[in-house]
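Design request, tokens follow.
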């Protein structure tokens, strides 16, 4: 088993990271998980939260609003709805995420309300953690 794996993080706006990683901590909708070299293949959805990438250069944290992660033994790729390095997070960014989530919740069908309510709750916890 290799000591590192390839990690890529992209959002519709830009590619945020393409580095070697020893571990990637992912805020999954079904629970947090850590991808490491040799991980079994899996695809998971993301909830709003902090994604942490550990590697030879240290740890990098990113705030993600949702998206997907594809994990394999050799790599982890994340396609985020919105993502930003943690150090660049502003109140305005968090307010934008909350406004988008509230709009999705208002427009959601009844059977989707639980999912959109959970996203709003996750964003509220994220905002508290960022203060």
């Amino acid at each position: 088993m290799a000591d590192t794996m390839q990690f890529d993080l992209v959002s519709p706006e830009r590619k945020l990271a393409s580095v070697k990683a020893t571990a990637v901590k992912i805020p999954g909708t079904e629970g947090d998980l850590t991808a490491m070299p040799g991980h079994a293949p899996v695809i998971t959805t993301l909830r709003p939260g902090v994604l942490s990438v550990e590697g030879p250069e240290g740890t990098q944290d990113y705030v993600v609003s949702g998206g997907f992660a594809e994990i394999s033994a050799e790599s982890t790729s994340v396609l985020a709805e919105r993502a930003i390095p943690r150090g660049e997070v502003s109140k305005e960014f968090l307010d934008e995420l909350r406004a988008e989530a509230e709009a999705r919740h208002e427009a959601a069908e009844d059977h989707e309300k639980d999912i959109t309510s959970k996203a709003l709750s996750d964003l509220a916890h994220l905002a508290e953690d960022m203060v």
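Comment from the thread starter after seeing the answer: thanks! Helices lie at 91-107, 113-130.
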